[in-house]
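Predict structure. Chain length: 216.
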Amino acid sequence: MIRLFSFWRSLATYRVRIALNLKGLTPDDEIDVDLIKGAQREAGYRAVNPMMALPALIDGEAPALFESLAIIEYLDETRPHPPLLPRDARGRARVRGLAQIVTCDSHPLIVPRVREYLAHELTIEEPARTAWCRHWHSQALAALELHLGAKETGRFCHGQEVTIADICLASQAAGAEFFGVDIAPFPNVARIVNTCLTIDAFARAHPLRQRGAPAT
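Prediction complete.
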């Protein structure tokens, strides 16, 4: 039994949802943790993930798995088809590096707890908070664009098959959309994102297609 703790707007959960779809897995239970209402801070969820972040995944028995990349690599190791990492060490390092630009360098700076701290502790007004988020999105997109100009890039971020890097790139693009950052100036990024979104596993996992998302 797979239990997924999620929220429609969570970009990290979007990544895990893509991986689940690619592996042909459907959670038996999906528990909504409303980040906007602060449900992640409630005692019940803090017992699942003390960091009060999404997603968390329980596969069979507790304890829960946490952090999107760790969950995705767990899924890849326990359900190895289709593989989400290259077979060669250098290829795996490149894919993980691309993924971590998103998950380690960019996304952590724009998550709700950071935006709330900027608002409530540093009393930064909303226009400046939005500019902050756009800045870090744009920085990551610019770096990814340069990396994706390398010869190792193919139809996808690394060669001709989907990897964890493509999953993370899709989440970066979705976040950019939320904050009004245009990805068109980054043609390598835009091409690969658009290719990914033609794949059902990506399209079906998109935040705006989840329960609770606003009508578009």
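Summary: Residues 126-147 form the longest helix (22 residues).
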